[in-house]
Amino acid sequence: MSHVLIISFSAFLLASILMTGCGSGQERNSATIKAAAEVPVDVSKAKQGLDQVIVSLKVIRDANESADLKKLAGDLKGHATQVTDALAVLDASSNDEVVAGTKQSQVWHQQADGFTDPELRNASSRREGELRSAVDALSTSRMIYLTSSQAFRSELSQAISAIDLDPSQAGVRSIHPVFAKLVDDEAGVRKVLTDISDRSLAVTALLNP
Q1: Is residue 203 classed as helix, strand or coil in its secondary structure?
Q2: What contacts 193, CB < 8 A, 6 or more positions away?
Q3: CA dihedral in degrees (51, 55, 58, 60; nearest 10)?
Q4: Is the pTM of this model over 0.85?
Q5: Which residues contact 200 (CB under 8 A, 6 or more apart)?
Q6: Which among 4, 49, 144, 206 is least surrounded, fewest beta carbons within 10 Å?
Q7: How many CB atoms lie within 10 A of CB 50?
Q8: Long-range contacts formed by 24-29: CB under 8 A, 24+ apart
Q9: Helix (H) / strand (E) containing 70
Q10: Distance, CA of 167 to chain centre
Q11: CA 94, CA 11: separation in Å to the nearest integer?
Q12: Backbone torsion region of residue 165, taken as left when φ is above 0, otherwise alpha when ψ lies between -120 and 50, otherwise beta
């Protein structure tokens, strides 16, 4: 019975230490949680911007002879700026979470090294390992996201430049293949956005159980 009580107390003590922390450790944990909370919000904004861009691309692609292509191109530019800005914010916030999560993992590793009780040391090491794995998965997801989204941003920028050079019906028809590729690539960008949000939430769940 006493052995069970000792284990229970050790588990309770570990949870208290890891959840509350002290001094700079607690502040760092709070900063990491804050960084993790921003990524899903930024992903949502990027998806909204992506929706608007795709709608604008389709409107221009399907425009008839009487359409005001200059106005439609202006609408596309506005939406492109919004999604580009949203993706730039996500670039930064996802990097902040990777950095903050890595630092938090290091703090937990140091805490585990400081425990002399085997139960506390093992439990702390296990949690630190779970966080490190989650942060590694987020980092990998972020690199895939950057590759996909940067290619999309580049193609979108080139399409807008092409419309600026020749906003006529003939000019728009000449870049229909570019529009088609952007519309097709949207699903891939959306997929990596969903993945980076899910990976971020996994980190959050470990930091703030």
Answers
A1: helix
A2: 43, 46, 47, 50, 90, 145, 149
A3: -130
A4: no
A5: 36, 39, 40, 43, 94, 97, 138
A6: 4
A7: 21
A8: 25/107, 25/111, 28/100, 28/103, 28/104, 28/107, 29/104, 29/107, 29/207
A9: helix 69-114
A10: 35
A11: 32
A12: alpha
Tokens found for residue 75: 């609408």
Question: What residue type is 19 in one-letter code?
Answer: M
Write out the two tokens for 40.
């899903």
Range 103-124 burial, b when 16+ CB lie within 10 A, else e: ebbebbbebbeebeeebbbebb
Residue bearing tokens 């630092």 = 103
Count the residues in the chain: 209
> What contacts 189, CB < 8 A, 6 or more positions away?
50, 148, 149, 152
In angstroms and rounded to an integer, the radius of gyration of the C-alpha atoms of the chain is 24
